[in-house]
């Protein structure tokens, strides 16, 4: 092995680095990455109408790759780098060895680990936004949207809330693992973008059956179990608080799923599989801003509320409020992420245990977070309501930033290329956009007859194979170049 001249062999494990913390953070980052690829790729590709399966999955797949390129190019430093503004860091690349092998801004591991971990969070945020736009957005417009939104919106919220120099961080906002930065942001941005892109075709909006519910459950399972790294990586350490966060995450999620399921049975008479999946997602989202700073009994209450309030807004308020009816939010990310994320942020301000907050942060100058419930119980009422005020301020800030930046981006892209696909492409789906189909084989292996790109891959259109000496010719593999 050849080592750089400025890196001695005994520096491979410096004293400031904790091997267990580094290993756990890398594992957590990979678990979060698996939520996106393949988790949400599978979920999106299977929960939509068959003709949109490939396009929906590929929107997620593209975003994952595009975000990493932008992240190391400039966006990581804008989110966590040197101070430029109270809500933004200075843009810079994250490729220099001297930077990557130094200690991260928090935690006992190198910057390379932190860049990887935070990338996984940034990537899943864009993929969640895609959920609101499935079934009609121009893919070329999506290719522009991803880097623009990451640069102008995600970096602002991440720096403000998670960077030690961000203004909301210094106020003491509680966002344990992304209820604000990821879920509220993606829910609001997705809903706003859906407004500008426009609705699906009337036929698709009225009837949009999943093409494979069993596969949808596989994607949902990856999302659920991957959340172990999502919230378990929040403390940047393999600590007791990480263990508590993981347990609270699954406790809240199971409670939310069961609550949503019971409501479906009571009001609609049938236990809906898709409904239970929505309840799972709202539970995961709701606990995220509070996972390691609340006790188990609070996680159960949060699960009951996350299975009830988003269910009510989706099943009842959505039909009564004109704006919600007007905007075609394909995966209902407004309800499952914006509503559930806001709910989790508010409940974090109510249930936050000051002792758990101290264990989580372990920074001397951090405000001692105390929820309203503990403030009332201990006579620190002012401190409790101050924390709730900060939580509400954070919600307002994230909403304003995302409505403004998302609207600006969509208007800019619309000036260059259409945001929405042409009606002819909307009728066809995957084959019109990509020249490929998710389920291309029918019957005994023949392709769908009416594919406009069928001849490109039709074996009958290829030149005959000339067998070599000694070959029978029947087992030749023909590759179309």
UniProtKB/TrEMBL annotation:
The chain crosses the membrane at residues 23-45, 57-76, 115-134, 141-162, 177-198, 210-227, 281-312, 332-352, 392-417. It is a multi-pass membrane protein. Keywords: Ammonia transport, Membrane, Transmembrane, Transmembrane helix, Transport. One of its GO terms (cellular component) is plasma membrane. Residues 23-439 form the Ammonium transporter AmtB-like domain. It comes from the Eukaryota. NCBIfam families: amt. This is Ammonium transporter.
């Amino acid at each position: 092995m050849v080592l750089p001249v400025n890196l001695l062999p005994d520096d491979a494990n410096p004293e400031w680095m904790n091997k267990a913390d580094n290993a756990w953070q890398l594992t957590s980052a990979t678990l979060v990455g698996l939520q996106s690829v393949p988790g949400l790729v599978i979920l999106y590709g299977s929960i939509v109408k068959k003709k949109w399966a490939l396009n929906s999955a590929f929107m997620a797949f593209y975003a994952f790759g595009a975000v990493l390129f932008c992240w190391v190019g400039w966006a990581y430093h804008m989110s966590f780098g040197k101070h430029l503004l109270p809500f933004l860091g200075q843009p810079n690349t994250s490729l220099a060895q001297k930077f990557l092998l130094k200690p991260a801004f928090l935690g006992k591991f190198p910057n390379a680990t932190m860049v990887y971990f935070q990338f996984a969070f940034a990537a899943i945020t864009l993929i969640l936004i895609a959920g609101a736009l499935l079934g009609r957005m121009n893919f070329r417009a999506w290719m522009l949207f991803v880097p623009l939104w990451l640069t102008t919106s995600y970096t602002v919220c991440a720096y403000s809330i998670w960077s030690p120099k961000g203004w909301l961080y210094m106020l003491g906002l509680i966002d344990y693992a992304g209820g604000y930065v990821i879920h509220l942001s993606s829910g609001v941005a997705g809903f706003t973008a859906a407004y500008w892109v426009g609705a699906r075709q009337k036929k698709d909006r009225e009837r949009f059956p999943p093409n494979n519910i069993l596969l949808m459950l596989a994607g949902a399972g990856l999302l659920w179990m991957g959340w172990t790294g999502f919230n378990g990586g929040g403390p940047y350490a393999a600590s007791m608080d990480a263990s508590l966060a993981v347990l609270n995450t699954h406790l809240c999620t199971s409670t939310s799923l069961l609550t949503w399921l019971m409501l479906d049975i009571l009001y609609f008479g049938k236990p809906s599989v898709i409904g239970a999946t929505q309840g799972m997602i709202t539970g995961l989202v709701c606990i995220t801003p509070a996972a390691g700073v609340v006790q188990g009994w609070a996680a159960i209450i949060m699960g009951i509320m996350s299975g009830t309030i988003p269910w009510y807004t989706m099943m009842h308020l959505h039909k009564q409020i004109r704006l919600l009816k007007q905007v075609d939010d394909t995966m209902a990310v407004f309800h499952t992420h914006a509503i559930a994320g806001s709910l989790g942020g508010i409940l974090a301000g109510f249930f936050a245990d000051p002792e758990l907050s101290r264990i989580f942060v372990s920074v001397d100058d951090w405000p001692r977070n105390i929820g309203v419930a503990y403030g009332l119980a201990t006579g620190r009422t002012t401190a409790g309501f101050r924390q709730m005020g900060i939580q509400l301020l954070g919600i307002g800030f994230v909403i304003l930033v995302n409505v403004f930046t998302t609207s600006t981006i969509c208007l800019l892209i619309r000036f260059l290329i259409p945001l929405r696909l042409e009606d002819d492409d909307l009728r066809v789906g995957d084959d019109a956009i990509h020249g490929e189909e998710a389920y291309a084989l029918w019957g005994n292996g023949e392709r769908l007859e009416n594919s406009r790109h069928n001849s490109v891959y039709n074996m009958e259109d290829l030149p005959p194979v000339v067998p070599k000496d000694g070959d029978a010719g029947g087992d030749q593999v023909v590759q179309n170049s």
